[in-house]
Design a protein that fits this description.
single chain, 428 residues, alpha/beta, Rossmann fold, six-stranded parallel beta sheet, 16 helices, EC 1.1.1.23, zinc, Histidinol_DH_monofunct
Length: 428
């Protein structure tokens, strides 16, 4: 792990340099993704079959997974898996239930009624990654907020393996209450959800993490459908003082580094001694890590310890990074909450390890990356709702307000707007 003495602007510049270095690859991916989306739009299921054969090496008789297969998967997994996932489900439900909003109506003056209707989206598509690892936890995190919002149709897509869809993912889909499951992954799955094919009806919003190709596809179909966010590599920032335990920090940094070779595992500290100890611990712990090759590549490319001059400067660095996951391993962690402006999810204290958020605690693990925590939030119930305003005026109420409406419309040069109000009083 590299050590850099820096401030907020220096840290921000380093991250910008990393993004710039990947630009050429991203441009090539965008061209390929655009071509694939266009092909799915034009050829429908024919394109889906061709891409599934090309990328997954499979010829599927159909894409939709039968309910009998889902039930069989649920019956085949270990009881301990069901117990653990249902524990997570209870926590995720209890947390997200508190995010629910209600419609409202008010009467600010005689003859005036205003209000807001909150309605769930009609159909949501959930992408669940396959690839180097299967993530049943992502099923719960994406589906449960949509269910709480009242979405009537939830369609899940996930890449098939040689023996079909991962049974743990199917079991999670049954527990979460997914309505439709499709053995379909990659760009073609995103295109199918956005535009629809003979086998896959279109949805209104697509959520869920994926690789760079999936993220690029979501970006390109945005506007045809809504999306949750454009996700980049996994990130963790640990801010720590000299009292923190380097073994804990190293383990937490590696918990994100093992996701992908592009993952960012960063330490922000005032203590060079701690940074050196954490670096040594990472090397020790890598030896016994099954996904050591992936984690080591991520640490070698991006693992960095930022040495700050003070804790105040350390939190300024954190806000400049705006990380997906932020662990606060400093004495009196709660006291520093007011200093945190930008972070997807915050973990306070030595025993609030980031994997708690990935699996069990309840807050969502679908979080903004690449600095977008400056303006994005983690996935939540609001993401699956839309809001419509309504207004009602009596003639008497409009008479009180008409002159100001007419004046403002005229000032903007929109005479038809003004006339629409004035015409209602012409007979007088």
């Amino acid at each position: 792990m590299k050590q850099i003495q820096t401030n907020a602007s220096g840290a921000k510049q380093l991250l910008a340099d990393w993004e710039t270095a990947e630009t050429a690859d991203i441009e090539a991916i965008e061209r390929q993704v655009s071509e694939m989306i266009a092909t799915v739009r034009a050829d429908g299921d024919t394109a889906l079959h061709a891409y599934t054969e090309q990328f997954d090496g499979l010829t599927l008789p159909r894409f939709r997974v039968a309910q009998t297969e889902i039930d069989a998967a649920y019956a085949a997994v270990e009881p301990a898996f069901i117990t653990a996932l249902e524990h997570a489900q209870r926590n995720i439900v209890s947390y997200h239930e508190q995010q629910k909003r209600t419609s409202f109506m008010d009467t600010p003056a005689s003859g005036i009624i205003r209000g807001q209707l909150i309605r769930p989206l009609e159909a949501v598509g959930v992408y669940v990654p396959g690839g180097t690892a299967a993530y049943p936890s992502s099923v719960l995190m994406n589906v449960i907020p949509a269910k709480i919002a009242g979405v009537p149709r939830i369609a899940m897509v996930t890449p098939p393996g040689k023996t079909g869809v991962n049974r743990y993912i199917l079991a999670a889909a049954k527990i979460a209450g997914v309505d439709e499951v499709y053995a379909l992954g990659g760009v073609q799955a995103i295109a199918a959800l956005a535009y629809g094919t003979e086998s896959v009806p279109a949805v209104d919003k697509i959520v869920g993490p994926g690789n760079m190709y999936v993220a690029t596809a979501k970006k390109q179909v945005y506007g045809q459908v809504s999306i949750d966010m454009i996700a980049g590599p996994s990130e963790i920032v640990v801010i720590a003082d000299e009292q923190a335990n380097p073994r804990y920090i190293a383990a937490d940094l590696l918990s994100q580094a093992e996701h992908d070779v592009r993952s960012r595992a960063l330490l922000v500290t005032t203590s060079e001694t701690l940074a050196t100890a954490v670096t040594a611990e990472i090397e020790r712990q890598l030896i016994t890590l099954p996904r050591a090759a992936i984690a080591k590549a991520a640490i070698d490319s991006y693992g960095t310890a930022f040495i700050a001059s003070s804790l105040t400067e350390a939190f300024a660095i954190v806000n400049a990074i705006a990380p997906e996951h932020l662990e606060v391993q400093v004495e009196g962690a709660f006291e520093y909450l007011p200093l945190i402006k930008h972070a997807g999810s915050i973990f306070l204290g030595a025993y609030a390890s980031e994997p708690l958020g990935d699996y069990l605690a309840g807050p969502n693990h679908v979080l903004p990356t690449s600095g977008t925590a400056r303006f994005f939030s983690g996935l939540n119930v609001d993401d699956f709702c839309k809001k419509s305003a309504y207004i009602s005026y009596t003639k008497e109420a409009l008479a009180r307000d008409k002159d100001d409406v007419i004046y403002l419309a005229t000032k903007e040069g929109l005479d038809a707007h003004a006339r629409a109000i004035a015409i209602r009083f012409e007979e007088e």
